[in-house]
């Protein structure tokens, strides 16, 4: 390329990376810096993460809730994806409506909707009380259950896209061949179809798991301050306790964990097949 | 298996899952029509008082306007920058392409809480903190990876010989872009702008960190309402947002003629 062409090219390509380098990459590196300099230089914050039992409890709870929400989301998404790919046309349309409308609606409104359904005087409790099935309202929210329900609801659409994409790439002649060779429906599903759709399941699992680890709106509203997970803990460290060193160090740990997960996903399955 | 389609038990579960997906959105509707001051079912006493409060109270209208203008500005900025970048990348691959694309897509891969911290540190050091411009910049950073991905997909379907033909006939890079490339990706551009607007309109994690008292976007006002006393006005605004979102998605599907599921 001659000099004029390089200049032209730079005018196109440069502005966005420059903006992101200044507004995003530099402060992200700053986060690493603060984690070893605030409040005093050294690895104090990381040592605290290694020894503090409260932080261990929060990390354990985060992993437990996120894994549970991920497994349930992927299972429900698999079921819906299967019906989307093989079900009759009108059912496919209905699934599309049920998946796309929540997908586009604000996370706050979705959490608020669950509050109305799950709270002590909410739809489910009132319904069960009116039917005389229970005499005391059940605790469905401000606990792990409420957080998991809200997260599963948020993540199902994200899990469906990669699974549908992989299921559509499965050659229908393969299960048909298994059928021709005398395999029953259960065997055809377990030994033929499920293994063929596994890349979608693995992709969905990692996408959902990584997403749930870092998001704090749904847990803070449906957990009501009682189910504090890592992201909300970082939020309070920063906004209330002003312990920037610890908050930064926890962010670095979360970021490294998420990067490891994304790396693992790229090793386990070809990412292109998930986008289709 | 396929010739028969899914079996009956699995169909029952699938419908249960669909009800699960719609339940929280449907539950909001009756609550918004309650005549009581607190969150409750109308139980025969339907009223529009919470919608009236929404229209008459200056705070809610103010926040809607704030969010709307921020959304338009962020969508314009992020679409403009994304067009320049992805068209530039499309014209000429270089050794820099991969690291530059990775940098641009970074905010999409990083957990939102960390993006929020990162942008907080950036804005408090550049006096953008708690200003309209600051929120626009923050929302642009968060939305632009999605705009870039959308445009790169659109560009991958454009015939590269069009560019060569235009250049051979003496058009400059700018003329080629404006007269040849952009008309070929106009649906991609509309899609990128729509996506950026929605992402900004609904953004809450980052907004919580880069604003305090001056700029109250609609999601921020809803967030405070949910954390303090839950006012049925939130149900009314939720119903309005659900209706607007459904209309917007319907328009988007009509324009593109396909859903992300079918593209998948």
Mean pLDDT rating of chain A: 91
Uncertain residue ranges of chain B: none
User: Outline of chain B, from the CA principal axes?
Assistant: globular
Termini separation of chain B comes to 22 Å
Give a quick account of the main beta sheet of chain B: strands, pairing sense, barrel closure.
none
Roughly what percent helix of chain B?
over 70%
* Strand elements of chain B, count: 0
Number of helices in the DSSP assignment of chain B: 13
The global form of chain A is: globular
Keywords (chain A): Cell membrane, Membrane, Transmembrane, Transmembrane helix, Transport
Subcellular location (chain A): Cell membrane
Main location (chain A): membrane
Family (chain A): Belongs to the binding-protein-dependent transport system permease family. CysTW subfamily.
Topology:
The complex is a heterodimer of chains A (276) and B (264).
Chain A: H1 3-13, H2 15-37, H3 44-51, H4 53-86, H5 89-104, H6 107-118, H7 123-130, H8 144-169, H9 173-180, H10 185-214, H11 217-223, H12 230-239, H13 244-268, H14 271-275
Chain B: H1 8-32, H2 49-56, H3 58-91, H4 97-109, H5 112-124, H6 132-155, H7 160-168, H8 173-184, H9 186-202, H10 205-210, H11 218-227, H12 233-256, H13 260-263
Description of the molecule:
The longest helix of chain A has 34 residues, at 53-86. Chain A is mostly helical and 276 residues long. Chain A contains 14 helices and no strands. The mean pLDDT of chain A is 91. In chain B, helix 4 (97-109) packs across helix 6 (132-155) and helix 6 runs antiparallel to helix 9 (186-202). Chain B is globular and about 75 Å long. The mean pLDDT of chain B is 90. The interface between A and B is large, with 94 and 88 residues.
Short description:
The complex is a heterodimer of chains A (276) and B (264). By secondary structure, chain A is mainly α.
């Amino acid at each position: 390329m001659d000099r004029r062409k390089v200049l032209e090219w730079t005018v196109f390509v440069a502005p966005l990376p420059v903006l992101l380098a200044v507004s995003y990459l530099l402060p992200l590196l700053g986060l690493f810096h603060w984690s070893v300099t605030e409040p005093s230089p050294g690895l104090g914050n990381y040592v605290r993460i290694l020894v503090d039992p409260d932080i261990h409890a929060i990390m354990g709870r985060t992993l437990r809730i996120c894994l549970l929400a991920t497994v349930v989301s992927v299972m429900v998404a698999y079921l819906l994806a299967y019906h989307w790919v093989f079900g009759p046309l009108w059912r496919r349309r209905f699934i599309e409506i049920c998946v796309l409308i929540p997908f586009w609606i604000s996370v706050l409104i979705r959490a608020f909707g669950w509050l109305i359904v799950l709270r002590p005087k909410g739809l489910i409790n009132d319904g069960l009380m009116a039917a005389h099935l229970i005499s005391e309202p059940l605790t469905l929210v401000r606990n792990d259950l409420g957080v998991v329900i809200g997260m599963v609801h948020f993540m199902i659409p994200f899990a469906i896209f990669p699974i549908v994409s992989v299921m559509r790439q499965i050659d229908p002649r393969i299960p048909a061949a298994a059928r021709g060779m005398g395999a029953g429906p259960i065997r055809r599903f377990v030994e033929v179809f499920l293994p063929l759709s596994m890349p979608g399941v693995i992709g969905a699992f990692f996408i959902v798991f990584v997403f749930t680890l870092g998001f704090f709106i749904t847990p803070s509203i449906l957990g009501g301050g009682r189910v504090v997970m890592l992201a909300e803990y970082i939020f309070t460290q920063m906004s209330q306790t002003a312990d920037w060193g610890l908050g930064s160090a926890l962010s670095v740990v979360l970021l490294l964990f998420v990067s490891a997960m994304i790396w693992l996903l790229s090793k386990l399955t070809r990412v292109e097949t998930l986008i289709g | 298996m396929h010739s028969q389609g899914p079996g009956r038990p699995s169909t029952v579960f699938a419908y249960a899952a669909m009800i699960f997906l719609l339940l929280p959105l449907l539950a909001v509707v009756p609550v918004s029509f309650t005549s009581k001051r607190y969150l409750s079912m109308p139980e025969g006493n339907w009223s529009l008082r919470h919608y009236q409060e929404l229209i008459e109270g200056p705070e809610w209208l103010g926040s809607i306007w704030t969010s709307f203008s921020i959304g338009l500005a962020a969508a314009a900025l992020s679409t403009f920058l994304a067009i320049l970048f992805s068209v530039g990348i499309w014209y000429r691959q270089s050794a820099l392409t991969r690291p530059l694309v990775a940098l641009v897509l970074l905010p999409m891969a990083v957990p939102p809480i960390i993006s929020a911290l990162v942008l907080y540190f950036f804005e408090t050091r550049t006096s953008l903190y708690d200003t309209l411009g600051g929120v626009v910049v923050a929302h642009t950073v968060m939305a632009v990876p999605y705009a870039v991905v959308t445009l790169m997909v659109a560009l991958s379907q454009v015939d590269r010989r069009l560019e060569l033909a235009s250049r051979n006939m003496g058009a400059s890079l700018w003329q080629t872009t404006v007269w040849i490339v952009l008309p070929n990706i106009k649906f991609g551009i509309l899609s990128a702008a729509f996506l950026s607007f929605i992402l900004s309109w609904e953004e809450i994690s980052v907004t919580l960190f880069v604003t305090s008292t001056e700029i109250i976007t609609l999601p921020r006002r809803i967030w405070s309402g949910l954390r303090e006393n839950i006012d049925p006005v939130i149900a009314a605004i939720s119903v309005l947002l659900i209706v607007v979102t459904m209309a917007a998605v319907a328009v988007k599907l009509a324009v593109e003629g396909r859903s992300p599921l079918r593209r998948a």
